[in-house]
């Protein structure tokens, strides 16, 4: 890749180095992160087109694999890591599409099958290590952030605590102060 003198975007054979980053257009946090990534990539000569899309279009893009970069969240505890790696074997998930060109994709999928069936904790740890190391070495994922829950409560309420799942609200623990 060459960066022509006086031009900010790298080129190869006259074609600019352009990637797209798809995200849900209604997610302001992802939009802000996308804009920061766009600025960082521009500084090194990569043109990043931001695709803030309607939720269904964004979801369809994950399934079809029509993306260069795309946001993805994990479910968190108690579903991890098994839910995340299990979805990596399904063509309807962005993880599968992101990994589809890897030369060791079949081996990764085989190890996922093994780890999901194994009851040997030592073997499971090694299999997860192998899976995640392969993905790390291939730079498939960019672990850039995590979301934080926010709660706004009336001053007369007490007993609120955050739960492992973002959509869980412990209403039974709330009481008037």
From TrEMBL:
Coiled coil: none annotated. One of its GO terms (biological process) is peptide transport. Residues 13-93 form the Solute-binding protein family domain. It comes from the Bacteria. Gene3D superfamilies: Dipeptide-binding Protein, Domain 3 (3.10.105.10). One of its GO terms (molecular function) is peptide transmembrane transporter activity. Pfam families: SBP_bac_5. GO terms for cellular component: outer membrane-bounded periplasmic space. This is Solute-binding protein family 5 domain-containing protein. The lineage of its organism: Bacteria, Bacillati, Cyanobacteriota, Cyanophyceae, Oscillatoriophycideae.
């Amino acid at each position: 890749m060459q960066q022509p003198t006086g031009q900010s975007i790298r080129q190869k054979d006259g074609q600019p180095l352009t990637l797209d980053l798809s995200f849900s257009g209604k997610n302001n946090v992802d939009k802000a992160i996308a804009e920061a990534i766009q600025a960082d990539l521009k500084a090194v000569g990569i043109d990043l087109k931001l695709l803030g899309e309607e939720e269904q279009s964004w979801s369809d893009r994950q399934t079809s694999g029509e993306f260069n970069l795309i946001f993805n969240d994990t479910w968190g505890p108690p579903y991890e890591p098994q839910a995340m790696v299990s979805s990596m074997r399904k063509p309807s998930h962005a993880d599968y599409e992101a990994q589809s060109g890897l030369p060791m994709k079949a081996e990764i999928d085989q190890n996922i099958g093994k780890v999901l069936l194994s009851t040997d904790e030592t073997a499971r740890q090694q299999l997860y290590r192998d899976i995640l190391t392969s993905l790390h070495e291939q730079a498939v994922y960019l672990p850039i952030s995590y979301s934080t829950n926010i709660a706004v409560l009336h001053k007369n309420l007490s007993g609120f605590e955050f739960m492992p799942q973002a959509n869980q609200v412990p209403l039974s623990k709330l009481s008037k102060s």
